[in-house]
C-alpha cells in the first residue's frame, strides 16, 4: 500500500527488534503531558450522568464547536468536529473530488504519505509539486501545476516533514489558485501551535469559498489517541455551501459521530488551559530544535531548521535517506528516523527525525559520533 | 437526504417544541447506567501516563481485540475495532461493493434508514425485500431477490425496527445466498445481548467467507456516545481475505484509529462486568415490553412483541404511521414515536416506539387513553 503506517511500522518494528538501545525519532506522538484540564475533564466525565454517555450531536458537542469557532473566528455552523484531523482531511479531499470537475489532487513533494495514500485510495490522479530549496512551496510552482484537471490542492503548514511555515501571502495565493482552477484548497494546520517563526497564517484568513482548513488537538494537547479534530468548511450559504452539507452527510454515514469522552475532555481543556501551557510546549520544542540542529552541524550534516512543527530533515554526507541507511543508523548509531524516500522524491537524500522524545540530546550525540 | 437523523431530528424537535410534557420514545439511547467497570476504566485512564494518550493501533487496542475475538470465537486478526457499528457497517458495505461484481445492495423493508442512506450515498442500487407478516425476513424471499447484480445483503438481528430475531438456520441460509450470488452478507448484531427469544444466532456461526458480522458496545453497555464497535471479517488467508486488508486500509485512511479513552474504558468493562449486568438489562427491557404490549392490546392496537432489541411497532386503528399522525400523538397524547413510513413501505401503517425510557408505563397509559 501507499500510505504511511506500514512504512512507519517497518521502521519501528526494525528498531524494536534491534539488539541495542534505540532512540525513537520515528513516530509523531508528543512525549509531554496533556493539559491538566484534560485529565480533569476525564475525571468529571467518569462521574457524569448516563445521559451524557449517549450520542453527541453528529457535528460535535455544541460547546466544543463554539470554542473552535471563537478561536478560528468563524460561524459555528461551519465547524464539523471529526475523528481527528485524519477524518477532517478525508472529508475535505473526498468532498473536493466530488464537488469539482477535475480528478486530480495536487500534493507537495515531499508529502505526508497519508495524503498521497488517501488520494490513491480514492482513485484520484496525483500530481506532486516539489518544494523549493528552502523547503517552502512556491505559489508560482503550484500555479504552474494547477489546471482544470485539479480538484483538490493540499497544503500543510507548519509542514510535516519539512518544517516550512506559509505566511498569509502564500496562503492567499494558494486560495486564489484554487479559485482560479475551480478546485478546493485543503489546508492541514495541525501544528499551528508550534510556529517558531511568527509567520504562520491560517488559510481561513484568505476568506475564500474554496478553502477548507483542518486541524486537531492531537499534537496541541499531546493526545493523538483521542481523535478529536475538526474541519472548517466554507459557509453553507455561499457558492460552495454544498461542500459542508455533503461532508456532514458523509461524516454521519461513516462514523455517525465522534467519541464523546474525548470531546468532553478536550472541551474542558480548551476552557481551562492557560496560554502558558502552549507556550511551554513550544519553548520545549525550540530548545530541542536548537540542540539537535547544533549537533547536526557538528556532524557535518545539512539540515533544515524547522520554522514550525517538530520534525527535522537532515542529510548526511554520502548517506541518502533509504530504508537501508535508516536501518544502519538504528543498528550502528542507536537512532531511528524515517527515510526521506518515504515522503517522495525531492527529499530522498534526507532523513526525518521527530523531536518528540526527551532524548534529543542523546540522539544528536550518537549521530555526531557515528558520522564523525 | 435519505438517512435517519434528520427524520429523527424532525420528530425530536417537534416534540421539544410541544406545549406539553412528552415521553420520548424516538431515540435509541439506552436510559440505564453503564457498567461500573466502564466508569472505573475512565477513572484510571484519567491518571494514565501520557504515553497511553497516544495513538492506539489502527485496528484497535490489542486487549480489546483479544476480548472480542474470544467472545466471538474467531482469530484476533479478523477483528477490526471501529468508530461504532456505524463505521463497521460502512466498511463492510463499501468493501462488499468494491470486491464483488454487482452494484446492488439488498435491504429489508422495513429498513434501518442508515443502511438505505449509506447505500444511496455510495451510489449503489438498492433493492428491498419485504419482511413477512410475522416481521421475519424469509430466506426464500431473499433468495428470490438476489442475483448476480447483488454485491451486499444487509441483515440486522435482533432487528430495528421490527424486533425479529433470526435463528441459526436463517443465518446459514442468508450466508449461503450470499455465497451463491457472489455477494457479501453484512450482519449487524448490535442488539445481540437483548435476545428475549433464545434463538439468536450470529452470522459468524455460518462460517462463511462471504460474511462480515458487525457489532458495538453502544447498546450493550449503554454508551452510544463512546463509538466503540467492531467488524469481524472473513479470514485474511481465505478466498475473500482481500476484504479485511482493504477495510483496514480504508479505516486507516478515514479515521487513522478509534478513540483510545473509549476503547480503554470498554476493555475494562468487558473484563470486570459480571453476567448479571447484562441479564438485568435484558430483564428490564422484557418487563417494559410486557407492560407496553399489554397496554397496546388494551388500546386495541396491533403490535409486534419483539423477540429481541428494544423497539415495538404498533398499529392503531385508522391511524397510519405518518409524520402527521406522529405529530398528533405528540400534541394530543404526549408520546413521541417514529413514523413507520420513515422505515419504508411495508410498515408505513405502523409507529415505532423505543422502550429506552423509564416512563414506558406512563406512555402506554397515555396511548391507551388517547385511543380509547
TrEMBL record, chains A, B:
Protein's name according to its UniProt entry: Aminotransferase
CDD domains, per database record: AAT_like
GO molecular-function term, one example from the UniProt record: peroxidase activity
Coiled coil: none
Subunit structure: Homodimer.
GO biological process, one term: amino acid metabolic process
Keywords: Aminotransferase, Pyridoxal phosphate, Transferase
EC number per UniProt: 2.6.1.-
Similarity field: Belongs to the class-I pyridoxal-phosphate-dependent aminotransferase family.
Record-linked InterPro entries: Aminotransferase_I/II_large, AspAT/PAT-like, Haem_peroxidase, NHTrfase_class1_PyrdxlP-BS, PyrdxlP-dep_Trfase, PyrdxlP-dep_Trfase_major
Lineage, uppermost ranks: Archaea, Methanobacteriati, Methanobacteriota, Stenosarchaea group, Halobacteria
Cofactor: pyridoxal 5'-phosphate
Pfam family, one: Aminotran_1_2
Domain Plant heme peroxidase family profile: 1-251
PANTHER family cross-referenced by the UniProt entry: ASPARTATE AMINOTRANSFERASE (PTHR46383), ASPARTATE AMINOTRANSFERASE-RELATED (PTHR46383:SF3)
